[in-house]
TrEMBL record:
Native organism: Terrabacter aerolatus
HAMAP family: Asp_carb_tr
Residues noted as binding carbamoyl phosphate in the record, renumbered to the chain: R55, T56, R105, H133, Q136, G274, P275
Reactions mediated catalytically: carbamoyl phosphate + L-aspartate = N-carbamoyl-L-aspartate + phosphate + H(+)
Pathway noted in the entry: Pyrimidine metabolism; UMP biosynthesis via de novo pathway; (S)-dihydroorotate from bicarbonate: step 2/3
Protein name: Aspartate carbamoyltransferase
Keywords: Pyrimidine biosynthesis, Transferase
Residue ranges constituting the Aspartate/ornithine carbamoyltransferase carbamoyl-P binding domain according to the UniProt record: 3-145
Gene Ontology terms: cellular component: cytosol
Amino acid sequence: MTKHLISSADLSRAEVEDILETAASMHDLQRREVKKVPTLRGRTVINFFFEDSTRTRSSFEIAGKWMSADTINLSAKGSSTSKGESLRDTAMTVDAMAVDALVIRHNASGACQQVAQWVRCSVINAGDGTHEHPTQALLDAYTLRTRLGDLDGKHVVIVGDLTHSRVFRSNVITLKTLGARVTVVAPPTLMPSGIGAWSAADGFATSWDLDPVLDGEGEHGPVDAVMMLRVQRERMSGGYFPTAREYTVGYGLTRDRLERLVARNDDVLVLHPGPMNRGLEIAPEAADAPQSVVLDQVSAGVAVRMAVLYHLLAGDDTPAPVPPVTATEGAVR
Ligand code: CP
């Protein structure tokens, strides 16, 4: 595996599968009473979040702690960034403390790539602007594989605010790497420019019309999973759709749409990376449906981020990711 994880395109199929297999053993650890292994003892990980986060920041922190790494959290507010220190100076300052990894979330697309050129430590992209969110794509793939098995030929529909979504970009890459077919659906105003070039790729389709795709009448036929994306109002400067109500009517996973989906395939999966705008892109009935794996995604986030840290930071002297459970430890669930 490469030194950094900046883009989902950094990972070959074999590397994605390796990470997901390691994540499965990490997930076993989550079910133990004592959630601690010595795997990354002596390593230091800094989580530097220039943008807000609940899931990604806390799961990276938990992942590091459960593997005995020393983890430190920094945010723009409370660091010298608020005094005007540049990203370059901040990154080089932290790197000079001999840390092993810098996990970065930033509102500028490409920020992580830039930081990787300035530092000696590993850089992990925890979401950069509208560019990519590779660990989200890995945890989504983990969640899908847990329920659907091998993703070769499986049909995943990604719906919503594609223009502002780093989750969509990373997911398309990782899902295609694993052989899935992907249809992306958005209103014309939220369909990224240049997506026509992507459409030429095998197993990738676009649509402005959600219902025929959900009904299995699109290019890729019946649907195995639907991933709803958040409408990112904080990144919108203009009117991308007339009203919230009209967005929901056209592109929301409403109760009616869920019922039609389930009538066709009882095992269909509903994903959302979070945070959800309940009632806008996803109805509460869909978010909380038996088909929803939203909380499975959150749980997978810890295991997958442990696996990523392990693959980037483990050295020749590093023990196996998760030692066998001891008689006194037991499993709690
Ligand atoms: N999915 C995701 O990145 O969530 P957070 O913004 O809460 O980290």
